[in-house]
From TrEMBL:
It comes from the Eukaryota. SUPFAM superfamilies: Ribonuclease H-like (SSF53098). InterPro entries: Gypsy_RT_Integrase-like, RNaseH-like_sf, RNaseH_sf. This is Integrase catalytic domain-containing protein. One of its GO terms (molecular function) is nucleic acid binding.
Amino acid sequence: MSKYVNNKHNDWEDHLQAVAFAYNTAQHSTTGESPFYLMYGRDPVFPIEKILHPDPSNDTAQDPHEWKHHLTTTIQQAWKDAADHTEIAQGRYNRGANFGAQPVDVKPGDLVVMKNFKSK
């Protein structure tokens, strides 16, 4: 966002909506999906897409109950897939964070240093 604001940095709120939309429609590496897709069960439709590919005729309109079932199924599957991707990402993060860590061998009866966080 710093590339788009003016030199005084006092017009950042003018760009916030576009930045939020870009963030919400971008695929996230942790979930494998965009927040928009996980929320609405579909990707956003941009105006240019409507111009290049206008809607088909209304003869092929889908039954609302079928659409509801399709949308519900799509969102549930997307959430399940996102949870699986998140679990894999957490495993990668944990392996990286714990790389080279040595387990602490503390047994009952060993003396340890304990910090007292209570205010005096």
